[in-house]
Amino acid sequence: MSRSAFLIPFLMMVILCSAAATAADLDGVWQTEGYGYLFDVNGADVTIYETTPISCLRSGLVPGALEVLNDDEVEARFPVSLPGFIDADMEVWPGPDASKRFHRTDTNTFMTATRLTKLPELCTADAPAAPGDTVAVFMETFKAHYPFFSEGQSGWQVPDTGDIATDQQLFDYLTGLMAPLEDAHTALVAPSLDAMYFGAEGASRSVPEEDRARGFEIVDNRYLRSPLAPYGRGMLGYAELARGIGYLRIHGFSDFSAAGTPDANLAAFERALDDFFDPIHGLAGLVIDLRDNVGGSDALAIALAKRLVEEEYVAYTKQAYLGVEGDTGWTDEAATWVQPSDRESFWGPVVVLTGPDSISAAETFLMALMARTPEATRIGDNTRGAFADMLPRILPNGWLFALPNERYLDAGGVSYDRSGIPPHIRVPVFTDEDLAAGRDSALDAALKMLTTKAR
Question: Which residues, in sequence order, are CB contacts of 180 under 8 Å at separation 6+?
């Protein structure tokens, strides 16, 4: 037998042993820093738990079978789903020292996790599900993970739950706690009542839906040179405002494909962007309208930013709240980069129209343009101030809820959570005066700026 013939099966054995060693290395209980997750890995089987100082509950985020990968970066992955809300993969990346990093692919979040010696006993005990127990877990979760209570307040006071006798009373009690926060990234889902609460729907800063509809009708009828061409199941629309000045309206960074998966949405989004930025349009300037944008995927927001830059830079950094009592504890900053795309792009002047209904991924997109050259000009009003991914959680009675547990920082270390990103040129969104006059003052300002630069 030749030496090469001997080496081939030997090398195959080494590769197989390496894969087995990697699989064994993933086994165990992994505790995340700042997110309250435990990942219990046993071969291909994964169980996810959600923890607080008083509880450990089987997560509503359902995992599938773990697959070990022969990849230079990603060691393994497994599907995760929350029916009706989340359909993604959880990737396992190597971390510093002996840690791992868990990354849900519909987010830009990487959660550092370290191995525990065993599953905590709290995770194997039966969890009481009386109304008082449910309220206690709800409050403790906010105390541990919610960074945006008023100054000096770490959560809500211990409640008297003796009067809560029905699911409806419990639902009203919990939503009554969340509503004053006016936080677009809080939510409660009660399957037993077929009831849902979303903080995005109750904010007093929001422009009334009928005013937004009338405002965009004015734009469509009086400003666009041709009807708005829909893309991505109507989530995007493109038209020309003036010769060489494009107009891109984005209702959200999600739901671009029938499949609804992160990969399918990204593929549909990229195809639309190829069309928008085709040189045949001869763009000299671009207006991006985010005044009615519900957010969605940060990954898609970054995909758009990539089409608008010539050089790479840090878009923003993010941190998760550690819930340190009497202090503000955060994980280390994790950077998200913008890198130029190798597909059709536009590097000229950009104006972005913003307002209180520019939410979540719309805001992270704006942060991603802050270091752009030339900087994109923001015209309108402050954005909503709701940046973080929604952290999904389950309650002892089986209800689901969500809250934000992160902050996003610009290059100067500034967070715009709660306050929103301010405009360069302040123009209130769809005022009564503008609607009555049939004009859009923000769009007028954008056109004046771009047509002046185009001369």
Answer: none
Chosen CATH of 18-123 out of 2.40.128, 2.60.40, 1.10.150, 1.25.40 = 2.40.128
Contact between 283 and 348 (Cβ < 8 Å): yes
CATH number of 209-454: 3.90.226.10
- Write phi, then psi, for 370 (nearest 5 degrees): -65, -30
d(CA 205, CA 428): 12
Three-state SS for 360?
coil
Going by pLDDT thresholds of 50, 70 and 90, the confidence category of residue 75 is very high
Residue in 44, 447, 2, 438 with CA at minimum distance from that of residue 219: 438
309-333 residue pLDDT tens: 999 999 999 999 998 755 669 999 9
> Under DSSP, is residue 314 helix (H, G, I), strand (E, B) or coil?
strand
Q: What residue has token string 């792009």? A: 345
Confidence band, pLDDT 50/70/90 cuts, at residue 151: low
- Which residue, 160, 169, 210, is CA-closest to 190? 169
Spatial distance between the Cα atoms of 100 and 88, rounded to a whole number of angstroms: 19
DSSP calls for 77-91: EEEEEETTTEEEEEE
Residues 98-124: what's their mean pLDDT? Answer: 94
The reply to whether 209-454 shares the fold of 18-123 is no
> Tokens standing for 270?
């990229």
H helix count then E strand count, the chain? 9, 24
Give the number of other Cβ atoms within 10 Å of residue 332's Cβ: 11
pLDDT of residue 451: 87
Instruction: Using DSSP, state whether 321 is helix, strand or coil.
Output: strand
Q: Is the dihedral of CA 66, 389, 186, 189 positive or negative?
A: negative
Q: What is the pLDDT of residue 427?
A: 97
Grade residue 3 by pLDDT with cuts at 50, 70 and 90: very low
Contact residues for 219 (Cβ-Cβ < 8 A; gap 6+): 289, 440, 443
Identify the DSSP state of 130: S
Range of weakest confidence among 78-82, 84-88, 377-381:
84-88
Residue 379's SS3 state is: strand
Average pLDDT score over residue span 254-268? 90
Which residues lie across from 238 on neighbouring strands?
Answer: 229, 248
Between 281 and 18, name the one with better pLDDT: 281
CA angle 121, 122, 124 (to 5 degrees): 70
Q: Token digits for 136?
A: 């206690």
Q: For the chain, which residues make up each domain, given as ranges?
A: 18-123, 209-454
Return the bridge partners of 393, or none. 401
Averaged pLDDT score across all residues of the chain: 90
The C-alpha atoms of residue 344 and residue 452 are separated, in whole angstroms, by 25
